[in-house]
UniProtKB/TrEMBL annotation:
This is DUF1684 domain-containing protein. It comes from the Bacteria. Residues 506-536 are annotated as: Disordered. Pfam families: DUF1684. It comes from Brevibacterium samyangense.
Amino acid sequence: MDQYRAEWHAWHDARLSDLATTFGWLSITGLTWLEPGVDVTWDGAPGVFRLETPEESAEAPVVGSTSDTGSSVATSAGWVRLTLHDRVSAGPAPEALDVLGHPRPTAEVAIDGDVMRARVGKGVSLGWVLVDHVLYELLDRDGHVGIRRHDAKAPLLAHFLDVPTFPVSFDWVASGHFEPFPEPRTRRISTAAPGLQVDDVHVGTVTFELAGHTCTLQVGGAVETGLVANFHDCTNGRTTAAWRRLNIGIPDPAGNVILDFNRAINYPCAFTPYATCPAPVPENVVPTAVEAGERSPLQTLTPEGINTPVLVVETEPGLRTAQVLEAWDTHGLDITRVTEGELSGVPPMAAFEGIVLVGSADDRTAHGTSGAGADASGPRHPIPGEELEGCLVDALAVRRPIVAIGAAARVFDRAVRTVKAEAADCTETGVLRAVTAGDLEWDSVREADASAGADEELPSGVIAVSEDAAAHRPIRKDITRTLSSGVGLIEGVDLLADTAELTDPEATADAPAEDRPAGATPARGESGAEPAAPRPVTWLSLAERFADYLRN
């Protein structure tokens, strides 16, 4: 198993490197479809793109084209012409230069001064024009022609670290048998692009047993170079993308193959809305939850921009966090929700924009997953296990904002104080070393908790935030106390109250008396009015401010 895991990690690292290439899938920032005879441009475009009509293509001289050497592209679409704007410097991309020097039957390129022209065959893409750090790709999908933009400085590429995966297990490796079709079969299938269908060629079927089910998938690719299957399973839309792809490899002479679902991967459409990935045929369904291979990616692109992934960790079993997390549903955060025992399967903390620890509302009833705690007569503060230790240390090391709710605030405070103590020790001794989860001596920290003084005790209904988040102005106004660790506290929080029932003192302080809700703070200058007692802060009232901070 050790050798297998080593090979899997090498494969995974190569997969990440492939995704993160300069003009790879993560660099895509847009896709514009062209219509024959229509000039198209946009903000930041290098010029005007035009898909020529057949008449225009017939009349236009083709200077410096690969067709001069006899190339002929089989396509139903015409040439695409780019007329550069004034003072725009552009040139053919490396792939287009290669086409100019080595003619292909699938692509043609022509250059005439500040006019560049190209065309490609059905299902073909060509890295065509390079302008500074932006590559313009010409593609044809079933006769629909488009320009896809790749930016070497794209936010998604810059933020990319990893793709989350399920734990590696031999349970998801199956033996199968390939049965070739007498002749390849062409199927009309949907794609990730709305309304776009394409032809997909299948060369046979693969039958195998998995998790107690007999499964048969139609496969593409080629016997000589390797078979490929697109498939649905019961994790789609929950922990995985809408569908995934499995490279099966080359069958042996008897038709035997190995299906390793630990190497199931996401199509580019899981990362970007500007992909045209082919969907599985309807019958390619594995009727079980295939908890193997790649999970849904954390960093994704939408037409509105890059998403904001946030990790939510339930530090105790049986917590009901749905009502707490509902507050973020409409604020543009992508929540990955795990228990402490599931942390081994999440990507590095740097892949998230923020970390949220959720504990029970009352610290006196908290208990740790490791079984450690105080004596039965006093508060039982949760002592984190090894995975949560690593999570906290990693998040602090990369300066990710952390929010700890309820009893989890104590866990967070201990982690910050311990990491700071280790850093101070390194400074005093002159020995600089990285702090790791194994450096955290939680038992000694708990002893320090007992002697820390009453001012460090945490009441129930508390939210703790890291120093950087506490300094954010919309959050800072609710900080009631700062612990010696630097962790900011928001005390007296009602985690489930309805914000509609609350009064915002800042919004009502200057309103006329008759327009202010009962109990609101009197306006400045009004005589005879006693200030109302402060009303409790709710998690719902803070959620939007936290979301705004994490997004920015």
